[in-house]
Amino acid sequence: MAITSLRDPWFISALCLCALLGVPIIAILWSFTEISVPLWTHLIDTNLSLYIGNSLLLALGVGLGSGILGVSLAWCVTQYEFWGRSWFQWALLLPLAMPAYIMAYTYTGLFDDLGWFDSRSLVGAIAFMSLVLYPYVFMLAKTAFSGQQQQYQEVAATLGITRSAYFIKIALPIARPAVLTGVALAMMEALADYGTVAFFGISTFTTGIFRTWFGMGEMQLASQLAGGLALFVLIVLGLEKHSRRNMRFYQTQDLPVNKHSSSTVQPANPLTIQSPLSYYLLSAYCFTVLLIAFIVPVTQLCVWAWGTVQTIDVAEYWTLLVNSFSLAFVSSILIVFIALCLSYAQRFSQTKSVGYLTQFASLGYAIPGTVLAIGILQPFGWLDEQVNYIWYEWFGEYIGLVFSGTFVALFFAYCVRFLSVAMHNTQTGLERIKPNIDDAVLTLGRGRMSLMRRIHFPLLRKSLLAASILVFVDVLKELPATLILRPFNFNTLAVKAFEYASDERLIAAALPSVTIVIIGIIPVIMLTRAMKQS
Amino acid sequence: MRKIVFGLFASVLSISFVATNASANATEASPQQLNIYSARNEALIKPLLDQFAAQHDVTINLVTGKADALLARAKSEGRFSPVDIIITTDVGRLSRAKSQGLTQPITAVLPDFVTLQDPQQHWVALTTRNRPIMINPKKIAPGEITRYEDLLKPEYKGRVCVRSSTNIYNQSMVAAMLIQQGEALTLAWAKGLVDNFARRPKGGDRDQIKAVVAGVCDIALANTYYLAAMRNADAESVAIANQVKVVWPNQSDRGVHLNISGIAVAKYAQNTDIANQLITFMLGQQAQDWYAKTNHEYPVDPKIEWSSTLQAMGTFTSENVELNQVGELNAKALQIMDKSGWQ
């Protein structure tokens, strides 16, 4: 086994990539080598149960909230015809561009003025996060539902299975990997969130990590907490994978069905026309979600931003815009490429452990950005030192920092943090292509390159685009790691928004915030257009 | 067509990205460089740095962020760290930087008025910031509250607002109390305060001030510059801030809690001369005046006139504690707050 693994080029390259991306995670887990008993005792005696309880409630709440919203909306737009359906199909993705903490700031500002109720609670945090994170579920579930074969429905109908029974017994189980992937992403993001919960004063695992680090100056204990969080996520993801170990989810007979349907000019998935009442009821549901999750907060931000627009320095603002866009653009290409390589390694490799490797490498998503950044700084600092000594040996001078405090560190951080987002898309995309297509192509004497280029890429186009756009938007919104790792004199929109917000100048933070949303919208619209075309 | 438009858009942005960063590199040809890690936000430091850069023909490179994150960065960068100057908004972080070996003694000759500094001159205060009690004068009679200890009175049950104990200002306040009152009294104070909380701590200092006006509570603890900033902001903020009154606590005994914003020279600074010149500049009249007038912080130079907003809040006596100790006791303070149930 071991020898065959080492001969397997897919395994070797996956191992190298994952080892590299796993460095910060290992650096964080390394903290467990020294355990301070008095500190742990204090933590257990005081707040640990509160941290765990609140974090679990938050993650479960967000998982449930985003799951219900995402699945129900996806079901509506793929199964029923209603007013504005084609428009909602893409518009419902828009909240993705809204960072959760900005949503929180905006709504509390709004509610404070109105004085309706206090949104700064665990329930508020769950609601706001669910509203901005449901698009992960929506997007993946929509693809899964619309990819489901029409025969299933027809067979179900002949067996007298009602529409709702069909949804529960057939459609949802088939869409399970996609839905759970989306829910897992949302839950991981909720677990790693700091901005929203800190603002609401909710003691979660993440605020506990920062309390321990900043307040007590105990970096080690903070890393241990972060490591614990990562291990927890690893176990949960592992259990989910384990529970569906004997299931496979392929799209069967995809090509013949399409051929058939195109010849008879019938859509693969005819939409159900509803009674006039539900025709508008469904529109009302979609619109309400969009209103709360996007239209209201963006309008409020625009109103605030409008008040400050005269005071801005145009050149500085342009630089911020360019910086944010370029970082997000370059990272999305880089990360999707890495994700694709790893997904292929998993598909082609004979070694089972590739799956575990990639799972480990994509853990970064569940680690708070600041902790992850420290996990990068430490090994990079060591590496820089070695580079400088070697350089001195050869050239008689020091070169300075090559890795820390440069774009290298920044891009590396994004790769570790957002690989998971891209991987989920590329993997689900690849999983849905039946391996017998590969076999057929290979038997016909074509190489793997040809298989990828001619068969896989056209089929993967949507997944790749979705992956790059999700990463793009995530990098655009990313704050904590950017804040620590960025080079001198380099700011992004998220950094600027944070600076104002941390100074409690929410109105001034509106313009950079709304710009993040607007830049984030552009690729979301592109994505949906592209999806419609294919 | 769309692809072409997007391609053009992306390339224009990428080119300007390269161009901006190339021009940043080009300016590095300037003779002197000063690299700064600042826990102070860019808006509250850059104007002064720009003035200094112009006066001394030096290029200033700035990274802002959270203090502990910046310290962690400097630490992991080690002896090759480019940082020359560290600026923070809290004494705890300065003493932590010193104890982690990230600083070196300041060699500049400091003005006579400088009293708030490290004994070995590893850091020096630039401004002071106080954390008094703020009340709704319609609900609390004048003279009713004169000490921090008064907040524990049973009649104030459910009437006190303060932000989370995760916030550094609260931690420093409790650490300073720990030095002056000892552990038992401090814990009792924290517990009593928690008993009188109107709500679970949430939001920032401004939110506590707003809560007092909104009637959620009648008493808040907040730093003065937040109130001062609100009194100089939009009409709505001014209206809120004017309904709150500042009470300077413990004026007959230990004084109101005091914290500082400060500056230090990094251990491996490349350019210690210019770094020390910056410190002299920050303690100079121009910079001190800017902080007092624009950011409504108390200047360390007593000759500088305060902003009219600060003057209107009145004069006061501050507590007199060994500031490095405040930093050292930060962890202890947090543990006490943990025990008291202050979230």
Secondary-structure map with pairings?
The complex is a heterodimer of chains A (534) and B (343).
Chain A lengths: L1 H6 L1 H21 L7 H9 L2 H32 E2 L3 H7 L8 H15 L7 H26 L2 H9 L4 H30 L2 H6 L4 H11 L3 H25 L10 H10 L8 E2 L2 H33 L5 H35 L5 H8 L7 H27 L11 H25 L3 H9 L4 H30 L2 H6 L7 H10 L3 H28 L1
Chain B lengths: L1 H26 L4 E7 L7 H11 L1 E7 L2 H11 L7 E4 L2 H9 L3 E2 L19 E7 L2 E3 L24 E2 L6 H14 L1 H13 L9 H10 L4 E3 L2 H8 L3 H7 L3 E3 L10 E9 L5 H11 L2 H10 L3 E2 L8 H6 L9 H6 L1 H11 L3
Parallel strand pairs in B: 1-2, 1-3, 7-8
Antiparallel strand pairs in B: 3-10, 4-10, 5-10, 5-11, 6-8, 6-9
Helix pairs in contact in B: 5-6, 5-14, 6-14, 8-9
Binned, the helix content of chain A reads: over 70%
CATH topology tier name of the domain at 312-491 in chain A: MetI-like fold
Mean pLDDT of chain A: 83
CATH class of the largest domain in chain B: Alpha Beta
**Protein chains sharing the most extensive interface:** A-B, 67 and 61 residues
Q: What's the tally of helices of chain B?
A: 14
Count of alpha/pi helices of chain A: 23
**Structural class by helix and strand composition of chain B:** alpha/beta
Name some characteristics of this structure.
heterodimer; A: 534 residues; MetI-like fold; 2 strands; globular; B: 343 residues; D-Maltodextrin-Binding Protein, domain 2; 2 domains; four-stranded mixed β-sheet; 14 helices; 14% strand
